[in-house]
Every structure is written in C-alpha cells, then in structure tokens.
Amino acid sequence: MSNVTITEYQGIETSTWCPGCGDFPILKCIKDALVQLNIAPHQVIMTSGIGCGSKLPHYMRVNAYNSVHGRSLPVAMGIKLANHDFTVIAVTGDGDGYGIGGNHFIHTCRRNPQIVHIAENNQVYGLTKGQYSPTSDYGYVTTTSPEGTIEVAINPIALAITTGATFVARTSSGDPKHMTQVIAKAIQHKGYALIDVLQPCVTFNKKNTYAWYKERVYKLDDEKGYDPHDRKAAWARAQEWGDRIPIGVIYQEVGRPTYEDQVTVLKQGPLVKQGFNIGRIKDDIELLKEEFV
Ligand code: SF4
Ligand code: MG
Q1: What local confidence, expressed as pLDDT, does residue 1 receive?
Q2: In terms of residue numbers, what domain contains 114?
C-alpha cells in the first residue's frame, strides 16, 4: 500500500507545452509510476537537457538538474555515482538524447548504471520549430529537409541492444496505462533502462500523429511466447518499424552488475555519506610529492 500521493509530486510551474503535446501523458505516467512504487519526491532526482521534453522536470516537485543540450545522461551518471541511493531518471528528446547526446547514449548503455532514461521521441526537433531529427524517417520533409531527409533514421532500440543495454523498452503517449507499467518496470530494473516513448509533436510533426501510431503499434505482452530475455528474439523485434511497431519490454538482461556495484569505493555506501578524510588526502599528496617532485 502506497503512502506517497500524487499531490506530493505536483509542481508549481505552468507548462508551456502546446495543448495535446505527447509530453503531458509522460509527465503524468512518471508521477503515477513513482506513486505506485511508493517512492517519495526526496528520493528521486531527474536530469534533462534542452528541448520541449527537457522541461518536464520543471513541472514536477522533485530534485532536478536541467543540464545543457545532450548532456542529461552524463549528469545522471555523475549523480548516481555521488549518491547511488537516489532513483535517477534522465529525460531527453530524440534530438537531444540520440543526436547531440548520441555518444553519451552509447556509453551509458555499455556501463549499465541504474538510471532510467526516458526518451521522448517525436521524430522532430520541436522546440526549435520542426527541423528533422535523428529519428525522422528517411524522406521526411521539414524546413531543413525540403526535398526529404537523405539520412536513414537511428534505430534506438537496436542501438541500445547492440551496445549492451540491459533493459530496452518502447511505449506510447497514446497508451498511458501501458506507459505507467513500463516506467514502473524500468525503475525496478537493476541497471540502465531505456524507454523510447512514441510522443507526438502535434505542432510540428503532422506525419507521426497519435492516429499514425495507433494504427501501427501492438503490444508484446499480447504476443504468445515472446520472451524479452531472448536476445535474438529481441533483436528481430527491434527491426520492426513501419506497418507494425512493437511496444513493451523488448529486451531485458537480468543479473549483470551495475556500474556502481563494481566501483570499489562505492561498496562502503554512497559517496556523499562517506565523509571527507582530509588526513588521507594529505598522506596521498605526500606520497605523490615523494614520487614525482
Ligand atoms: Fe510538444 Fe511539439 Fe509543442 Fe514542443 S512543439 S510542446 S514537442 S507539441
Ligand atoms: Mg524531438
């Protein structure tokens, strides 16, 4: 039974999102998942970068750090290492997380820190008024691609699986119940958890709309015999895009140690609670002086 209530997560800032934006359900579902898991606001820290979706932590009553473009994940990683008792949730957009922050995305997958990464994937740069993004479909027409994009889209699901992510999921802003379930599973996963959210930008993406996704998405939970622990099966589902788009937990590896589990100094507890041993630092400086000066 949860003691935490949704009102505890109620922020005081007024949203600047467009009416109908797919970010609204994401905001609601993050709160619902945290309440379901009885996690209080002081136990959570969120990070973000730049973009419409990166304003999300502004609209919650929660610890938050709004970093620069593409840097939500490395900031989340630093926070996790400083205090691994926190539930750390990094939000990014598709341009922010897979483009400008693409390098960080790959290496966070490899390292497996216990961070939930919610990628609000609307296949466009929304905040800057509709340029094509790394996940825009090939041929997608925008102001910066008037004849259609000539770059193939990044497949974040396949990229995450192949670079070592231990939890890879997709959900949709059109199905909040499903999204809440997936976020709750991701928070409980021991390791890095990517959730790619199909998040319509109602103002600048007139192609990938709620209706477009609704026609195509199907739930892996309804697929008899589908096992997200089977990497080969997950890889096959990761290739599906277009007429059929799977949502749910696509891949999960259980048992791999997290990054923070393997850092020796963190075995003594969160770094922020270990105190500051000035005597030891002085000894170390003397040793360095002996060796190098
Ligand atoms: Fe949402 Fe698009 Fe408006 Fe940004 S521009 S708030 S992504 S609908
Ligand atoms: Mg975007």
Answers
A1: 61
A2: 6-268
- Look-up: residue for tokens 């790394």? 134
| Assigned domain for 251 exists | yes
The verdict on pTM exceeding 0.90 is yes
Residue to probe by mutation, ligand 1, list 91, 122, 135, most atoms within 8 Å of CB: 122
**Strand residue runs (E) in 82-133:** 87-93, 115-121
How many domains does the chain contain in total? 1
Cite the DSSP H helix spans in 61-175: 72-82, 94, 102-111, 156-162
Give the whole-angstrom CA distance, residue 93 versus residue 198.
11
Low-confidence ranges of the chain (pLDDT < 50): none
Ligand 1: atom nearest CA of 199 is 7
User: Does residue 275 lie within any of the structural domains?
Assistant: no
pLDDT digits (tens, 9 = 90+) for 248-288: 999 999 999 999 999 999 999 999 998 777 777 888 898 99
Q: Which of 26, 27, 52 to mutate to test the pocket of ligand 1 (most atoms within 8 A of CB)?
A: 52
Atom nearest to 130 CA in ligand 1: 5
